[in-house]
Design brief:
Layout (H helix, E strand, L loop, with lengths): L1 H33 L1 E8 L2 E2 L6 E5 L4 E5 L4 E9 L2 E4 L3 E2 L6 H14 L2 E7 L2 E6 L5 E7 L5
Antiparallel strand pairs: 1-2, 1-3, 1-10, 3-4, 4-5, 5-6, 5-7, 8-9, 9-10
């Protein structure tokens, strides 16, 4: 009877260890898929064709950075169970024209609301953590060899 309990405990531990390992593999795969440079095309329904904010995800360091329209920004990110969590973003403090600063403020404010992502056909879509609405769309920049 004791061996049956030990065997059950071993199987139980193996199943949960396997699930945890699978979750880690999925998270790493998502991180690698997300890695790269993106040019923002839309922020909460507003076209960014004039000022083109950028986003760079670096998989090895789990860092996010880019240009918000005037200033550079940077911070950390994590991917867990297909959820994207951005840490607090810091930015340089250069003053630009009023229009550029308004775009930048809106972009950085929107980045703080991000809670999910999807990549399809080289288009990154960032979703709100509150209601999964589309916050930001961006196109992946072509990699130079």
């Amino acid at each position: 009877m004791k061996s049956l309990a030990t065997l059950s405990l071993l199987v139980f531990a193996l199943v949960f260890t396997s699930c945890d390992e699978t979750k880690r593999v999925i998270d790493v795969a998502g991180n690698v898929q997300l890695s790269g440079d993106y040019t923002v095309t839309n922020v909460e329904g507003t076209s960014m064709s004039a000022t083109k904010p950028t986003i760079t995800f670096a998989a090895l360091s789990s860092r996010v950075s880019g240009n918000a329209g005037c200033n550079n920004y940077f911070g950390d990110y994590t991917i867990t169970n297909n959820t994207l969590t951005l840490g607090e973003l810091a930015a340089t403090k250069k003053m630009c024209g009023e229009d550029a600063m308004q775009v930048e403020d809106k972009f950085l404010e929107t980045m703080n609301k991000v809670g999910g992502y999807r990549i399809q056909d080289n288009v990154l879509t960032l979703y709100a953590k509150s209601d999964q609405s589309v916050l930001i769309t961006a196109t992946k920049d072509k990699e130079e060899n």
